[in-house]
């Protein structure tokens, strides 16, 4: 039996856990550096003590930017087998976290399968599962019902839970008065808002936050403070509702740390490119450097079918300015449940954004593969290029489908290839073009 309650408890007491050692090795940091940052709340190691097969990762702005993949079934698409294929494909592609957002059927077996077989961090949104678990309409659920689902997810081995604790009954009046274009686009946030509106009660995740912290402390579950008021369009970015909720999340962060519970704070959402850096700095100040977990941000509202690109643009800026964790967005965002190819496209786009940000932040060794790729391209070492590529299979397929006459070129340039010409010129060779 371990002698500490949570990773944060251990860190505060000067104990270096096996998870901290694993993270330190991956991040090229000393174990003491990881421990000290974790004690301050600036790193989270999301690792439920019951998730035995986890491959631990640290989430923090000074570490490699991590990627989360949202999956799960809905009433319209309810093939759990297909979702598990997506999970393993996501892990193979390098995703560090999987969030099960299932909103249909018997969700517990799938959740248990994830925490017994998947090495990635597993996250959930318990409020989604409450209606399904109890098979009762939202208005008939009690505050205790919501808390018991949080407990169930913790017992199932989930590593982090998104809880929309930051909206209160005051938010109801703000939303009515502010007249946002998109109101609330957070699914969990809208459910909590609807429950408060129908019952007249305070947000149970806010009112009973201390009880939730006791559950999370028992199982070492990280609280991901959900942004119910995240902007769902550019027009709503940075408004009173979003900023006031962020202030409340800062208060809740401090309360969680006092109980040795790790915290991540969730952020936008849709946001103009020029507002992202300021939003990241504001979060870092208000939430005292707690890891920031962003959806996108999506930088334009008019690209359905291409939101993996709009998200990657925003994600690269956000991560370079301090976001620690990018939630992928797929081409199916706003349109449909993503299929296997959508999942791949979303992950690759997010990984590109994360890697670009890590280079900008000068994360140790982040640029090594880029330098190796440059050497491989100069020498036409195609096998080495595949080794360096984020998505080697796609790169291979593109080249094979349009092969050039000569290996020391591609079908774009042929003998006009600048690299080929320079190699020959610098070695004193004759440069044949025709």
Tell me briefly what this model is:
This protein has helices spanning 7-12, 18-27, 31-39, 80-92, 107-117, 126-134, 143-155, 169-178, 187-199, 204-207, 209-219, 240-258, 276-286, 307-320, 340-360, 368-378, 382-388, 392-401, 418-426, and strands at residues 66-71, 97-100, 121-124, 160-163, 222-225, 263-267, 292-295, 325-327. With 434 residues, it is α/β, with parallel strands linked by helices.
Please describe what this structure looks like.
The structure is a single chain. The model has no long low-confidence stretch (mean pLDDT 95). This protein has helices spanning 7-12, 18-27, 31-39, 80-92, 107-117, 126-134, 143-155, 169-178, 187-199, 204-207, 209-219, 240-258, 276-286, 307-320, 340-360, 368-378, 382-388, 392-401, 418-426, and strands at 66-71, 97-100, 121-124, 160-163, 222-225, 263-267, 292-295, 325-327. With 434 residues, the protein is an alpha/beta fold. 49% of the residues lie in helices and 8% in strands. Strand 7 (292-295), helix 14 (307-320) and strand 8 form a beta-alpha-beta unit. Helix 4 (80-92) runs parallel beside helix 15 (340-360), helix 14 runs parallel beside helix 15 and helix 17 (382-388) runs antiparallel to helix 18 (392-401). The protein has 19 helices and eight strands.
Write the layout of secondary structure elements.
Blueprint: H1 7-12, H2 18-27, H3 31-39, E1 66-71, H4 80-92, E2 97-100, H5 107-117, E3 121-124, H6 126-134, H7 143-155, E4 160-163, H8 169-178, H9 187-199, H10 204-207, H11 209-219, E5 222-225, H12 240-258, E6 263-267, H13 276-286, E7 292-295, H14 307-320, E8 325-327, H15 340-360, H16 368-378, H17 382-388, H18 392-401, H19 418-426
Parallel strand pairs: 1-2, 1-8, 2-3, 3-4, 4-5, 5-6, 6-7, 7-8
Helix pairs in contact: 2-3, 4-15, 6-7, 7-11, 14-15, 16-17, 17-18
